[in-house]
Specification:
The chain contains 17 helices and two strands. By secondary structure, it is mostly helical.
Length: about 350
């Protein structure tokens, strides 16, 4: 009991000490807190995140008033790291920032964004819900991932001193749970542009792959098979939300007759061209078709092509592709695909 009372007395003293200053004053003290030797202090990191906000917010489709909230919050978002309360009780980071912000008269939106920057802190923790908080959380994580990868602080099999796996997992969770469809490569590049050192394309690729691996694990943990997850990520890893939705859709549809027939239909032509060099600029001249099966397949292909693009859902893809099943079967049953044909 005496020990607990003493800690409460300490906390009271620290709180009284902190409230003699404003958050903006603590911001300047961040210059004395090292983030990483080559990446500078926490003040340097704060300034990078501030630069990230505008471009990243625009990429995430945030409205101007939400961006303004995020900008204002970013200025003092980690100022509480320099307060005595957080120095002594590190788990209060973000919590004290929100409290001190409200005490000073900052809006509830700005205060909430300050707290949500640190979310999620651990497995099962709450996730940011406000647009400004989501943006701050994503920006802070991207800055850490890109910068620390660039200076060689990637996790090893046995060590992850900066908690980059947790940061990356949290990044994916925030995007998926809040349905933010971000171009991941663009977001990483935006973070790379504000770093104090050159970020090579290989580092950007490494960060992209690292985040994709966390997305893969998250989807597998949700009950989607590894085969489905990897097949989806091979095409859609750059848009995590679309990839996650597609994986779940594919899981739900994988036992349907239509799905199996469409996979089988695509498999036959895929096997023929596998390993061969294909000129994608090749133009098809429909006037050269001689058989009705050729014409029917070409017409079906054009119809399907008009309905499919890189962002459609798996359900739309399957529904559109069904019309290829019969034309493909008729084509392979009646047309000699590999026949040598000389036209005069």
């Amino acid at each position: 009991m005496d020990t607990t009372r003493a800690r409460y007395e300490d906390a009271k003293f620290f709180y009284q000490l902190d409230t003699r200053k404003r958050l903006v004053e603590f911001r300047e003290q961040l210059d004395g807190i090292l983030f990483q030797e080559k990446l500078g202090s926490m003040l340097d990191k704060t300034k990078r995140v501030e630069k990230l906000i505008l471009r990243l917010g625009a990429a995430m489709g945030l409205e101007e008033n939400r961006l303004l909230v995020a900008q204002n919050a970013a200025e003092v978002a980690v100022s509480d790291l320099a307060t005595t309360m957080v120095i002594e009780f590190t788990s209060l980071a973000g919590i004290m920032g929100r409290h001190y912000a409200l005490r000073e008269g900052y809006s509830q939106e700005i205060a909430d964004a300050i707290f949500e920057r640190v979310l999620p802190r651990f497995a099962g923790d709450d996730l940011p819900k406000t647009d400004a908080g989501i943006l701050l959380s994503v920006a802070d994580r991207l800055d850490s991932l890109v910068g620390l990868f660039a200076v060689g602080c990637q996790p090893s099999a046995t060590s992850d001193p900066f908690g980059l796996r947790r940061l990356s997992h949290g990044l994916v969770q925030v995007l998926l749970e809040n349905k933010k469809n971000v171009d991941l490569n663009m977001a990483i590049q935006i973070a790379a542009d504000v770093q104090p050192l050159h970020i090579s394309p290989s580092i950007i690729n490494d960060v992209h792959l690292f985040v994709t691996r966390r997305l893969e694990q998250l989807l597998v943990d949700q009950g989607v098979s590894v085969e489905i997850v990897r097949s989806v990520l091979s095409e859609r890893a750059n848009t995590p939300l679309l990839a996650a939705l597609s994986a779940v859709q594919m899981k739900n549809m994988s036992e349907s007759d239509a799905f199996k027939k469409v996979v089988e239909a695509y498999s036959r032509p895929t096997k023929i061209i596998r390993g061969k060099s294909i000129d994608h600029a090749l133009q098809v001249n429909g006037a050269l078709f001689q058989l009705e099966e050729e014409k029917a397949l070409w017409n079906a292909f054009q119809s399907v092509q008009s309905r499919i693009n890189s962002s459609v859902g798996i359900d739309v893809f399957i529904e559109a592709s069904v019309q290829l099943i019969q034309p493909l079967e008729d084509f392979f049953n009646n047309v000699f695909v590999m026949a040598v044909c000389i036209r005069g």
